[in-house]
Specification:
Layout: H1 5-26, H2 32-35, H3 38-48, E1 63-66, H4 72-82, H5 121-135, E2 142-147, H6 154-165, E3 171-177, E4 180-181, E5 184-185, H7 186-189, H8 195-201, E6 205-210, H9 214-226, E7 232-237, H10 260-269
Parallel strand pairs: 1-2, 2-3, 3-7, 6-7
Antiparallel strand pairs: 4-5
Helix pairs in contact: 1-3, 1-4, 1-10, 3-4, 3-9, 5-6
C-alpha cells in the first residue's frame, strides 16, 4: 500500500483532526507534538514501511518506535487509519479500560512495537531491534521518532554512539525538530544545537528536511534506505501544533486539551469535521 503525495496530504489532515478530537474527548493529552509529527507518520505508515495490519506480527515487518511517547495520539490515529483497529476506538484515549493509554503500550495496543514514555529509552530500544535484525540477516528496517527536547537525555547519545558502532544502516531515526518542549524553547531550556554536527560527529548520516513537505520526506527515506554502513537521522524541521493557528509554535499546547469552542475552531481550520 503506497499512497501518493496527494493522498498522503489528505491522510495527514484526517490524522490531525483525530488528534484534536481525541485530546478533547479525554480532556488531557499532548496535541502540539502530535500535530507536528502527523506528516512524518503518514509517510511512514502509508508509503514507506513494509507492514501488514492483517498480520501484525509478520516475521520480516518493518518496526516503528515512538520514542517521544507522549505524542501517542498521532501514533494511535495512524494505526487506526492503517487498519490495525477501528477508528471508533480513538475517542477512548486515556479512558479507564481503553487500550489507548496516555503512552504507547506494546502489550495492549495492536501495532505498537515498544512501550515508551521515559524519554530516550525508545531510541535505545530501536537500536536493539535494528541490531537483532542485522544478526538475523532480516530485511526488516527500524524507524524511530524522537523529539528535540528528548535530546536533553544522556541515554540518547549513548544510543547514538552504539548505533554507529554497530553500523546499523537498517535504522532510520527521525527528529521532530519543532524547537519547543514543555518548558519553552529548547535553546532556553537546554541548548541542543547544532544537532546535525553532533550526530555527524557520532558517525551518522544526516539529512535535513522540511518535515511538512512530503516530497522531501519521501526522498529522505529513500536516501536513508540506500545509505550503507552507517545509521541515518532525518532532521525534520516542523511546527509544533501544525495546522491549528492558535496551537502553532506555542509551548503552552505541549500538553493541554482544547475546550469545546477551541475544538470547533481547530476542526474548521483543519478542513471541517468529517
Amino acid at each position: 500500500m503506497k499512497q501518493s503525495v496527494k493522498e498522503l496530504k489528505v491522510t495527514a489532515g484526517e490524522i490531525r483532526k483525530d488528534i484534536v478530537k481525541m485530546v478533547h474527548a479525554s480532556a488531557s493529552g499532548h496535541p502540539g507534538g502530535s500535530l507536528s509529527a502527523a506528516d512524518i507518520l503518514s509517510a511512514l505508515y502509508f508509503n514507506v514501511m513494509n507492514i501488514d495490519p492483517e498480520n501484525v506480527k509478520m516475521e520480516e515487518r518493518d518496526k516503528f518506535v515512538l520514542s517521544k511517547g507522549h505524542a501517542a495520539p498521532v501514533l494511535y490515529s495512524s494505526l487506526a487509519r492503517r487498519g490495525y483497529f477501528s477508528t471508533d476506538e480513538l475517542l477512548t484515549l486515556r479512558k479507564i479500560g481503553s487500550f489507548l493509554q496516555g503512552h504507547p503500550d506494546m502489550k495492549g495496543t495492536p501495532g505498537v512495537e515498544m512501550s515508551t514514555g521515559s524519554l530516550g529509552q525508545g531510541f535505545s530500544s530501536s537500536i536493539g531491534m535494528a541490531l537483532s535484525a542485522k544478526l538475523d540477516n532480516s530485511p526488516s528496517r527500524t524507524f524511530v521518532l524522537l523529539g528535540d527536547g528528548e535530546l536533553n537525555e544522556g541515554i540518547v547519545w549513548e544510543a547514538a554512539m552504539s548505533a554507529a558502532h554497530y553500523k546499523l544502516d537498517n535504522l532510520t531515526a527521525v527528529l521532530d525538530y519543532n524547537g519547543l518542549q514543555i518548558d519553552g524553547p529548547n535553546d532556553k531550556v537546554m541548548g541542543v544545537s547544532p544537532v546535525d554536527r553532533k550526530f555527524e560527529s557520532f558517525g551518522w548520516n544526516v539529512i535535513k528536511i522540511d518535515g511538512h513537505n512530503f516530497e522531501e520526506i519521501l526522498k529522505a527515506f529513500d536516501s536513508a534506505k540506500s545509505t550503507k554502513g552507517i545509521p541515518t537521522i532525518i532532521i525534520a524541521k516542523t511546527i509544533k501544533g501544525k495546522g491549528v493557528s492558535f496551537m502553532e509554535n506555542n509551548a503552552g499546547w505541549h500538553g493541554k486539551a482544547p475546550s469545546d469552542e477551541e475544538l470547533e475552531i481547530a476542526l474548521k481550520e483543519l478542513g471541517g469535521d468529517k
